Each structure stands twice: as structure tokens, then as C-alpha cells.
Amino acid sequence: MDLTTPGELTPAEDAVTRGLVRGLSYEQIARERGTSVRTVANQVRATFRKLEIHSRAELFYKLHAGARRLPRAAIEPARALAGLSPRARTVLVRRAFGDSLKLIAHDLGVSPTTICRELQRGMAALGLAVPAELVLALCAEPLSPPCTDTAAAGGVPRC
């Protein structure tokens, strides 16, 4: 991972950044590193300031700017998403926008396990391996905010 010139990030900031890229939450990174969630948040803030970015999506863009191979969905996101079911598209987009699996499940009237499986199937169909690639792929072209309105029959989202 070559995000900055050598020495710009501290070893701790680099480790936290690698955790973010792997798709880990602040809590998971803190547990791995044996620090507090607040420490991780401070290191993320410092990293974003040093890299002159404001979000995870910008971090992924910066990371993958020189990548040789992008996920299939990052090349043609609209075409790749069109092949998925409406619910799969909704799950992927809402997850990329930061909604939790539990919230998505509640809104769609299904279990979090169902949403987790839908997310895994959708990512596999798009050729994505980690959640970080999902954000990169879906942010490759502008998307409207996720649908929240659902039809009465079957809980299928309407956009």
C-alpha cells in the first residue's frame, strides 16, 4: 500500500489505515491493536488530515489510483449492478453508504443473516473480495442515496 511518501504516517496510523482498507470497524481495529476505540478514531482523523482526505471512499480512491487491477464492478459499476436483484442492489448501496446490516434488515423486514448472505452473494457477483472494494466500486460513479421506501408487497424497495 503506497498512500504517501515514506515516513508521512506513523506506524500506528499506517496500521489503522490498513485495518480500514480491510473493511474493519474502529472497534475491530482497536481490539486487534490493543487500544481504545477513541485512540483509533484519533489516528484515523490524523491520517485523513495528513492525506488530505475526508472519508473512507477517498482513502480507497487514493489507494487504488495506481492499482493494476480494479474489481470488475469498478470498471463498469452500472452494468455490473444491473445484473443484480433489486434487493441485492439496495443492500450493496446501503452498506456502501454506511448503513449497518441490522438497520438494512429491519427496513427490509428480513433477518440480519439474510442481509449478510445477500451482501456476500452480491459482492461475489461483482467480483469483490472485501468491503473496502465495495465502496470503491460503488463510488466509481455517482449514486443516489439508498432507497428507504418499500412496496407493501414483499418489501421490495422502490426508487
Can you tell me the CATH architecture of the largest domain?
Orthogonal Bundle
Largest sheet, if any?
none
| Rg over CA atoms | 17 Å
CATH class of the largest domain: Mainly Alpha
Number of helices: 10
* β-strand number: 0
Span from first to last CA?
37 Å
The ordered string of helix (H) and strand (E) elements is: HHHHHHHHHH
Task: Write a compact overview of the structure shown.
By secondary structure, the protein is an all-alpha fold.
Explain the overall architecture.
There is one protein chain. This protein has 159 residues and is an all-alpha fold. Helices cover 59% and strands 0% of the residues. α1 crosses α3, α2 (26-33) packs across α3 (37-51) and α8 (101-108) packs across α9. The radius of gyration is 17 Å and the shape is globular. It starts with 10 loop residues before the first helix and ends in a 21-residue tail after the last helix.
List the SSEs and their pairings.
Layout: H1 11-21, H2 26-33, H3 37-51, H4 56-64, H5 72-75, H6 77-82, H7 86-96, H8 101-108, H9 112-125, H10 131-138
Helix pairs in contact: 1-2, 1-3, 2-3, 4-10, 7-9, 7-10, 8-9
Give short descriptive properties of this protein.
single chain, 159 residues, mainly alpha, Arc Repressor Mutant, subunit A, 2 domains, 59% helix, globular, disordered C terminus
